[in-house]
Write a structure and sequence with these properties.
The complex is a heterodimer of chains A (about 240) and B (about 300).
Chain A: E1 7-16, E2 19-29, E3 34-39, H1 45-52, E4 60-65, E5 68-69, H2 74-80, E6 81-85, H3 96-106, H4 111-124, H5 140-151, E7 158-162, H6 170-185, E8 189-193, H7 197-200, E9 205-210, E10 213-218, H8 220-227, H9 232-242
Chain B: E1 5-14, E2 17-27, E3 32-36, H1 43-50, E4 58-63, E5 66-67, H2 72-78, E6 79-82, H3 94-104, H4 109-123, H5 138-150, E7 156-160, H6 168-183, E8 187-192, H7 195-198, E9 203-208, E10 211-216, H8 218-222, E11 228-233, H9 241-244, E12 252-256, E13 259-264, H10 270-281, E14 286-290, H11 294-303
Helix pairs in contact in B: 3-5, 4-5
Classes of the chains: A alpha/beta (about 240), B alpha/beta (about 300).
């Protein structure tokens, strides 16, 4: 399957015994798009994302991520995607510098490259004074930017964000999204999963998953018009409530 | 009438960190009061002080007229407290968890079954009564935790971020239960980082770094924003925030997926905005004035940009 889409999913399914976690989903995400992947707990989002990241084989169907097949090219996919979650990405007991070096090593960068990238990131993030402090002592907003930067160390073409700004104060959240828009404008694709409907509002398009299927997909403004609602929260509740 | 919760000039520090400074608020009987704010705002410290788990450095704090430093046992027997990480026993069933908390709170044996039934009516957990708590979904766990908190019929309920990490549908069901409890006269203090949940409270205090930024009815607080916010949609290519930032009068520009939110001083009309945009890019875009969100107000208050009347 050849495609210039960042993500292209065709009739993708995953069964666990008799349970159908993901049921023939199809969708595409453009390069440089910010795509929201929404759904209630247990809707099948995590299973779908594990497949897209090459961590779980599908039962049937096909998808390409950054041009590589999730059936046959999973190692290439892993080199071309980044992952950031506000909760799990950083080691609190390592210093800022050590975290960057650690992730550089995980992503297989050379020693020189790691050292260059570390200096570059620390200066970009204005973390010079804090570089030898334990990561736990950083304010939440900075931690989040550090987590984002480390997930971009290997220059992936797609980045997966898992509830990136939950619990963060609104000012840090808006600053964070400003950076995300900047990253997307450079052609990187941003794939967001979240329960935070506030975060969904920042996406170019959103999909809503329910019982293994994608039951709605569109722009936030388009969906608001279609359902005659003013917030993504109301749309989500009305769609899931109907089903 | 004396308020059920009364907090006057409450301060608390941990080492050099001031968690709460000079906090004053009260909650009436049967009121649903929200402490709204991000992590680190002081919400948990306030709740833990009210349920007598930590002692205040200074201030007068009482629950149903009982002083939190003196009447610890009395307060604990009439309040329900659901901390952020409520410990349910994953190896016990839903019913066994409820029984366990009933025993812990010394609910008379013959009353347990009836109370369980009443709580099932709120929670819709009856069909799952024999399921192990560890196998419940996130939303169901939260409802069970709430039920365990209610087993001794508390008159005041303290809920610390009860819906964090729970999906929007389960959250909305959870709030439905809180409204039911309110009707029965239970006084509820709930904290949440979700600004949208604030709208479901009777009154809220918006907290930031240990202080209250604003307090009152939610609609009164959104009314504090005097600047006008316009939503701009249209040709994707020109929706670039840096272009609009060049308008001299503009206060802020925020991208939201397929639209931009532009903030202007009070008195700036739709027409003014259209003209400014046309002058800048030579194109007409859709301009719609929108109501400020609580998040807009929060940011406006923190940055001192809520605008002043002409």
């Amino acid at each position: 399957m050849q495609t210039d889409k960042a993500v292209s999913v065709s009739k993708l399914s995953r069964h666990f015994g008799k349970f159908i976690a993901v049921d023939e989903i199809s969708f595409e995400v453009d390069k440089g798009e910010i795509f929201g992947f929404l759904g209630a707990n247990g809707a099948g989002k995590t299973t779908a994302i594990k497949m897209l990241c090459g961590l779980l084989k599908p039962t049937s169907g096909e998808a390409t991520v950054a041009g590589f097949s999730i059936n046959s090219d999973t190692s290439k996919i892993k080199k071309n995607i980044g992952y950031m979650s506000q909760k799990f990405s950083l080691y609190d007991d390592l210093t800022v510098k050590e975290n960057i070096e650690f992730y550089g090593g995980i992503y297989g960068l050379s020693r020189e490259k790691i050292s260059d990238k570390t200096d570059q990131l620390i200066s970009e993030l204005n973390l010079d004074k804090m570089k030898n402090s334990l990561t736990r002592s950083l304010p939440l907003g900075w931690k989040q930017r550090l987590a984002l930067s480390t997930s971009l160390l290997h220059d992936p073409s797609i980045i997966f964000l898992d509830e990136p700004t939950g619990g963060v104060d609104p000012i840090s959240r808006r600053n964070f999204w400003r950076i995300i828009y900047e990253i997307a404008s450079r052609g990187k694709t941003v794939f967001v999963t979240t329960h935070y409907m506030d975060e969904a509002e920042y996406c170019n398009r959103v999909s809503i998953m329910h019982k293994g299927k994608i039951i709605e997909l569109g722009t936030p403004t388009g969906l608001k018009q279609k359902y005659n609602k003013t917030t993504m929260q109301d749309i989500f509740i009305s769609i899931i409530g109907q089903n | 009438m004396q308020p059920v919760i009364s907090v006057i000039n409450f301060s608390k520090s941990f080492g050099k960190t001031t968690a709460v400074k000079n906090l004053t608020f009260d909650v009436e009987k049967g009121e649903l009061f929200g402490l709204i704010g991000p992590d680190g705002a002081g919400k948990t410290t306030t709740i833990r002080t009210l349920v007598t788990l930590i002692s205040p450095d200074s201030g007068e704090i009482s629950v149903t007229g009982l002083n939190v430093s003196k009447s610890i046992r009395a307060i604990r027997s009439i309040t329900g407290y659901m901390p952020q990480r409520f410990s349910l026993y994953p190896d016990l069933s839903v019913r066994q968890n409820l029984n366990f908390f009933a025993n812990l709170f010394e609910v008379p044996k013959k009353e347990i079954a009836e109370r369980r039934k009443r709580l099932f009516k709120f929670s819709n957990l009856e069909p799952f009564s024999e399921r192990l708590a560890g196998q419940l979904s996130g939303g169901m766990k939260q409802k069970l935790a709430l039920s365990c908190t209610l087993i001794h019929n508390p008159v005041v309920l303290f809920l610390d971020e009860p819906t964090t990490g729970v999906d929007p549908v389960s959250r909305s069901e959870f709030w439905e239960i809180l409204r039911e409890l309110k009707k029965e006269g239970v006084t509820i203090l709930v904290s949440t980082p979700y600004m949208d949940e604030a709208l479901l409270c009777d009154r809220i205090a918006i907290m930031h770094e240990g202080s209250v930024l604003a307090m009152g009815k939610p609609e009164k607080i959104t009314g504090l924003m005097r600047n006008h916010i316009y939503k701009i949609t249209g040709n994707d290519l020109v929706l670039r925030s840096d272009v609009f930032a060049q308008i001299p009068e503009i206060i802020s520009v925020q991208s939201f997926g397929d639209s931009l939110h532009l903030t202007f001083p009070p008195g700036f009309s739709d027409e003014d905005v259209r003209i400014k945009i046309y002058g800048l890019i030579g194109q007409e875009l859709n301009v719609e004035r929108i109501a400020p969100s609580l998040e807009d107000v929060f940011i406006g208050l923190v940055e001192g940009k809520i605008g002043h009347a002409n």
